[in-house]
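Re: your question about Heterokaryon incompatibility protein-domain-containing protein

S., sorry for the slow reply, the queue was backed up all week. Below is exactly what I fed in.
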Amino acid sequence: MSDTIYSPLPQTLGRRFIRLCELQPGSGAEPLRIRLLPAELHKRATREYEAISWVWGESASCTIIEYKGINLTIRQNLDDAMRAFRLPDHARLLWADALCINQGDPDEKAEQVAMMGLIYACAAKVLIWLGGDHEDVASNAFEEIKHHVESRQLAKSTPATWRVMSDEEVGRVDAKVWKSIRTFFGNEWFSRVWVQQELGMNQSATFFWGDSQISSKNIGAFYQWLTWNDYAGGTVVKGLLANSLYAAGSTFGLAATFRRKETSQGSSAFSFMQLLDYSQTLLATDPRDYVYAFLSHPSARNAAAAGDQATDWDMVDTDSLLVVPDYKKTVDEVYSDIALALMRHHAELEPLTLVFHNESTLTSDAPSWVPRWHHKSATTPGVPVEKEQWRRRWNGLPPRPLGVFGKKFFDAGRGTPVETSVSPDHLTVKGVVFDRVSGAYDQPRLMLDSLWVASLIKSGQLSGIPQKLAGFLESKLKMMTSWLGNTPYEDPILAAALALACGFVNGTSSKRAFDDLVTFRRNFAACCAEDAGVQNQLDHVGADEKASANPTDFISAINIFCFSRKFLQCDKGYFGLVPTVTKTGDYIAVFSGVAVPYVLRPVSRGHFKVVGHCYVQGIMNGEALISAMKDGKMPTEIVLI
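Result:
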């Protein structure tokens, strides 16, 4: 699209201006005709407009629109949306980012992006365009959703009054209808980074899918009921829709947090760092938008800078933003800006827990301590993010960064203050380099099984290697036995189990294993016996102990925490879980005042690259720093590059 069609927007101190698209009347295959009109943006503006929320789609798929006698090129998705929204007898006032923002002017684009949340908040309505109903399923999907919402009064009730949908009820619903609902929730719109604020900043939103439409309130109520049904023990979500709900879950969960009235406790109710963490499930055309798409959220504003104005979104100036959009900056510069802003804002190094590397990013020239939100997938480095399916991105990462638990559960840097300094390329921290990685192994769960069997053989409780593990363990028995004799743990097998579960009882709660070690020990022993195929050979385990064990608790924990992580063995004999790119020769370090340890890769004397955060059994509560200081080794400067 030519930049020459855009006249500069008015620049008046204390006032905001946008462009609106006046879509001229027409129908059918008639050419689309528009006028672009400047308008002041304010909640009490007299000129009502509707904002379009849509997926840009492939740039190669384009069509023509007429403006000032000039034929302009727009993406096919927007053409489809505007034809769907065009009225036959009078003009319609719309706002669509691709048309109303001069995409060729980085300064204007940055200015408008900073106001994006307000643009959607001030709109009379948000029109969510999902694309054409090419399979002719939209009507069935929306009618079924409306039926559940109305018959169960989902929009007017709470989960306390709901009941689980029985298998019999599920069976009475046409399978094609469930498929159409699955198709709806699998729409690409749900996986885009911008849609959370577009849905969240305006409570009057409508989904349009082909010729069918439904209110966002109905969709939100239905989604909440679906997820509750699953949680309460129903089969409907797990059996029919689960795989299509991941992105929708992020969208509905995050959208509500954008509304000020729902975060009345302040920006700490949902932190900006949490938003960026959740963005790993989403997609963006421009990688910088992994940051910029969330700047309308209350947590994106520095309350100290905003002052009393922070409670009135309409009056907050962009000076209060943690970062100000700037599309002239590179992706690495934008990510460095927000990482440093978060460190200053939180006065700690918590943003480091969002660092995930693959071999490509770890060997790049960009600072290793800066999270790269557009390189989340560990599976296909170098593939443009818009070409990847969001589920592949989701599957490439550990689902729960340990940093989200904070110092309530982990406090590796206990008793020391966070100390940092920043230069253009370096982040200098205080801490101790605690141990060296002697091995990082795939299939952590199998490593525990093998250690457990090795310990039984060593103690004489098992005469031979179970057939189930023979092929794997035969060549490793000597190594496993040496591990058991070279550890700081009184019970090495329990320590390995705690490491794989990151000290938690299961994967669905935050209950610590140390609160009930007896039960935890039973659960993991039962799990190991089942995995190794030695249940009938454990005569030393009593019947009562076997009966009370719940191996599924332990399995749920290791399924969560071992996913996309490796089993760690250190020179000093410590066990843990580390990022998948960890290798022999890396180091384990603990930073002053920081909750979790980190894997570092040496580059030169005192200079390291950050590989990622980790769990190391036995040093998660300050033991490494305490031990070092007892030996006269005070925290020293560690330079991260």
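The chain has a mean pLDDT of 84. The chain has five domains: 3-129, 138-257, 264-397, 420-437+568-640, 445-563.

Happy to talk it through on Thursday.
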